[in-house]
Amino acid sequence: MFTSDMILDATLIPAMLVALVAGLLSFLSPCVLPIVPPYLAYMGGVSVGEMTEARAARGRALLAAVFFVLGLSTVFLLLGAAASTLGRALLQWQGWFVTGAGVVIMIFGAHFLGVLRIPFLAREARLDAGDRGGSAFGAYLLGLAFAFGWTPCLGPILGAILGLAATEADVARGMALLATYAMGLGIPFLLVAAFFPRLGGVMRAMRRHMERIERVSGLLLWTVGLLMVTGQFTAFSWWLLESFPALAAIG
């Protein structure tokens, strides 16, 4: 049986903070943020105008958003379990595995920073959930499709978090890491659905700074990869706990 001390410790807490920020950056990415309003409207079976003017329409969109987030969270949790299982299988080569994962994450970071462009990360492989707008089941299917297929924006960042999960070599810890990433990506969807009229201006402002958001994403990934390659991620974990003692209360 897993205890909180086994799942949450000094090593995992910083990784979860990275995963949370990575999820938020995924939401703010160029091919996610612009489609949020029409996506929510379609899933709720309403129009964007109705979401702006009618509270009932926002309620339907919020309910659909909940099932959408459940759908994408299902995929992320399964991916986290799979990555951690792989890490456990490769436990005897853990040092090499962590270094290799760090190098891959640094390459993903360079992609976002514009230092190099990786062609396959510029492709989308979206799954079609069919004409199921306005139903909770359809929203759940769209969440599954979104998590599986939105590769241009989710691919590099999600790959980095999966790399971190694989180095954990523990299924519960890996799933906790991906659950945190799902929170970072999913909670903004729920907030937009609940407070759409008030957040419209904020979303427009974010769209004007897409390039900066991409560069922040790249810098985050590159830094995490460098810490993994140099073996300093654990040292960073202890430094973070010493600097912010309140984090120790989480575990």
From TrEMBL:
Domain named Cytochrome C biogenesis protein transmembrane: residues: 15-229
Name the UniProt record assigns to this protein: Cytochrome c biogenesis CcdA family protein
Lineage of the organism: Bacteria, Pseudomonadati, Pseudomonadota, Alphaproteobacteria, Rhodobacterales
Entry keyword Membrane: yes
UniProt topology in membrane: Multi-pass membrane protein
UniProt cross-references to Pfam families, sorted A to Z: DsbD_TM
Membrane-spanning intervals of the chain: 12-40, 61-83, 95-116, 137-166, 178-199, 219-241
Cellular localization per UniProt: Membrane
Keywords annotated in UniProt: Cytochrome c-type biogenesis, Membrane, Transmembrane, Transmembrane helix
Family: Belongs to the DsbD family.
InterPro entries tied to this protein: Cyt_c_assmbl_TM_dom, Cytochrome_c-biogenesis_DsbD
